[in-house]
Amino acid sequence: MKEKNQLARQYRILLVEDEPTNIQMIAGYLSSDYILTIAKTRKKALELLASSPFDLMLLDIQLPDGNGFEICQHVVANREKYGNISIIFMTSLNSPNDEARGLSLGGNDYIHKPVNEVVLRARVKLQIQLIRKNELLEHFTCFDGLTEIPNRRAFDEQLKKEWHRARREHKLLSLAILDIDYFKQYNDLYGHPAGDQCLRIMAANLTSSFVRNSDFIARYGGEEFAVLLYGTDLETSIQLMEKSLAAFIEKNIEHQGSSIRSCVTFSAGICTANPKADSSSNFLNTADKELYLAKDLGRAQICGKRLAPLPK
Ligand SMILES: Nc1nc2c(ncn2[C@@H]2O[C@H](COP(=O)(O)OP(=O)(O)OP(=O)(O)O)[C@@H](O)[C@H]2O)c(=O)[nH]1
Questions:
Q1: How many angstroms separate the CA atoms of 226 and 64, rounded?
Q2: Is the CB of 192 under 6 A from ligand 1?
Q3: DSSP letters along 258-290, please?
Q4: Is 300 close to ligand 1, i.e. is its CB under 6 Å away?
Q5: pLDDT value of position 32
Q6: Could you tell me the distance, in angstroms and rounded to a whole number, from the CA of residue 230 to the centre of ligand 1?
């Protein structure tokens, strides 16, 4: 899933070409618009592809140590290693059969040499536009439009991923489910736009409270949020959430409809599990139950429960 600030980014092209004059010419056509990296051999191309992310590969077919068709086939068969890179063949093998072969192996396009600047720029631009549209689509399906944090769908995916990762790596996983207190009254009293603004502040507060790369914050439902904390025990999770609640209360968002304070607060339920010894549905249900307990105990507080511990 892409972060918001990755939506406006520079695109990276790997040029696989051994002929110096072609390299110079193509670099002249493309390097002002894209980040261009050059590989003169099959070996170098595969090394670069495995070690850094590229969006597009411009692939010559006749290379000193290999063949572009075979590189394309290998990359397409090993997407988990090489990523979802687009491939444009760029070759002097100009027969329809060669072109058909390149496209049927998974190439996205096929450009004939000698390369024409206008044709090359247009074909590259088309592939990059497709990549960009896919990124935007992914962004809009995974991010909540109001708060600009990941949505429920993204959370479900992340939970699945982190649950399996924690099983593999023998780590704890903590989940907090949060709910704004008396939010119906807040909407009724201050209006829906003010309610929306309150949700945005809540999301921003969580984003500044949980700053580790592995921390994952999502809008879980209407006025509910979820935080996944990888490799974090219950005590630490509760401490972090208490700090986050204190920071939120400090924002002092007036709430005359709250029976417990004159500002907006939230309640949270936390569950910590050892995914090797538990089920993710029990994990979710327990966090939910803890949230209801926090509500029952008076709101503006955090309750938590540990499921199976890590083995000693
Ligand atoms: N402004 C706004 N309100 C929302 C949104 N999504 C859900 N809500 C409101 O959130 C409120 C949730 O109300 P309840 O589930 O009764 O919970 P509550 O009033 O917070 O009560 P407690 O959780 O028991 O403290 C409802 O009034 C929903 O309309 C949203 O996107 N924007």
A1: 53
A2: yes
A3: -SS-SB--EEEEEEEE-TTSS-HHHHHHHHHHH
A4: no
A5: 96
A6: 28
Token pair listed for 136: 């935007």
Which residue's alpha carbon is at the smallest distance from atom 28 of ligand 1?
184
Tokens 């439009």 belong to: 145
At 105 the three-state DSSP class reads: coil
- pTM score, two decimals? 0.75
Over the stretch 136-170, which tens digit does the pLDDT of each residue have? 998 899 999 999 999 999 999 999 999 999 999 99
How far is C-alpha 290 from the chain's CA centre? 28
**Residue 193 Cα: closest atom of ligand 1:** 1
Hey, what amino acid is at 174?
S
State which of 187, 197, 199, 265 you would mutate to test the pocket of ligand 1, scoring each by most atoms of that ligand within 8 A of its C-beta: 187
CA distance 109 to 47: 23
Domains of the chain and CATH, by start: 4-140 (3.40.50.2300), 152-306 (3.30.70.270)
Instruction: State the Cα angle at 283 between 280 and 288, rounded to 5°.
Output: 130
ipTM: 0.88
Dist CA 190 CA 200 (whole Å): 15
CA nearest ligand 1 atom 3, residue: 195
**Short-list 222, 237, 214, CA closest to 283:** 237
Q: For the segment 215-226, what is each residue's pLDDT rounded down to a tens digit?
A: 999 999 999 999
